[in-house]
What does this fold into?
Amino acid sequence: MTLSCSVAVLILYLTAGSGDTVYDTYTDFVEEDFTPQLDYKDPHWCHSPHLANGELICHSPRGGAHRSTLDTRCEMSCDRGYRLIGKNSIHCLASRRWSGTAYCRRMRCHVLPLIPYGRYTCTEGFVVDSRCDFTCDTGYRIEGEHSRTCQHGGSWTGEQPVCSDTDPPKIRCPLSRLKIAEPGKLTASVSWDPPTASDTADKSLDVILVGPEPGSDFKEGPHIIRYKVYDQARNRAACKFIVRVEVRRCLQLSPPLHGYLTCSSDGNNYGATCEYHCDAGYERRGVSSRVCQFNRSWAGSPAECVLMEIKSDVKTTAALLDQFYEKRRLLILSAPNISDPDYQMQNIMIQKSDCGLDLRHVTVIELLGSPPRETGRIKESQLTSEVIEGLRQIFRISRSYFSMVLLDERGRDRERFIIPMASDELFSYIDSFLLDEEERERLELHRDFCD
It folds into this structure.
C-alpha cells in the first residue's frame, strides 16, 4: 500500500508542474496484482507454521532455522495414530500466506461388535494402540483371542472371539448306603432322593440315571448307581454311589444222622426256616424246625433222628395210631387166613418192595384170620386183640375176603384194594396222591437206593 500511494503522489506532482490542474475522478487507488520483489531479509514473511500432533520439516532459502521466510517449503507428517488431512507439503507465498493447510486427525478402528455371553473393555476406546480385553459371563470361556489392538492402519489385530459354554455342570449323588435284606428274602428294596444338578450357564439340565430306579429290589452284594448330566452345550458331568445289600446268614445247619433238612429261602439267611426230616424207619426227636435269627444264630436246638420204636402192646387203637400220626403212612393188609392165595401173592410182592415202602414212609400192618385164632402184627411185633378189633371197626375191614386199606399220615382212608397190587402200581398211586413236592424231590434223589 505504501508503494501505491507514492506513485499517485508523484503523478499528481508532475501534472501540476505543467501549469494545468488535473483532477482524478477516483477517490482511492486500486491495488493492482503484481509480483513483488522477493525480500529474503524479512524472516517472518508468513506466519509461523504449526501442526498439532504432527511434525514440520521446513527448508528456507535463507537456510538455518528460518521457518517462515518467503518461499520456505515445509513437509508435514503426523504422529503415530494420526492421519494427515490436507496437503503434505506447503510453501510460503509472496502474499504472505501458505500455499495450503493440513491437520492431523486421530486415527480410529471400527467399533467392535458385542459378543454373546460376554463383554469387552478398551483402554482408549477405538483409537490406535487402544487394547480391548474380552471377558465372558460366568460359565462361559473365551475361545480365540483374549484381546484385540487397534493398529495404525485402522484395523484390529486377530479375530473376534466367542464365548462358549465349556464349563461342565455340577452334580452331587446321594451317599452310599447299606441295606439289610428282609427276613426270608435275598433282596432289599432301596430308595434314595435323585441327585441335584446345577450349571452356571443353563437352568435346564438333562439328568440320566444309569442303573435301577429308586425303590427297586437289589440282590445281595454291591451295586453301583451312576448319574450323568448334560447341559445344553452337551458338557457332561457324572457321579456315582454304591448300594450294598447284606443278607445276614447263620452257619449252615448239618442234617441229622439218618435224616435230612428242607429249608426255605436260601437255607441259612435271616428268616429262613429249616425243617428236620428222618429217613424211613426213624423218627424225629426234638424240634421240628429252626429259624435263622437276626443275630446270625439258629433258634432252638438241633433235632435227632432215632430208630422208630413201635409199641405194639398198647391197649387201644388210638394209642397205636398216635404213634404214626404225621410220621408214617399205613397199609393195612387183611386176609381170611394165611393160606389165602391173594395174601400169599401180595405178601411176596410186599417183601420185595419193602425198601420202596420205607422210602415212602409206609408201614405195613397185617390182620389175618378170625377169632379166636385171629392175629395182627407189624413185622414181628404182635398186636392185641382189642387193637385188631378197633382197626377193623374204624376202617370197616372185613375178615371174609382179601383187602388192603391205604391210610395217609393223618390216618385218613385214601384207597382200598380188593386184589393183590404189584409194587409199581402201588408206588405210582402213593407217589401221585400222597407225597408232597418235597417228598417227590427227595424220592428222586434216593430212587436208586433200593436197586
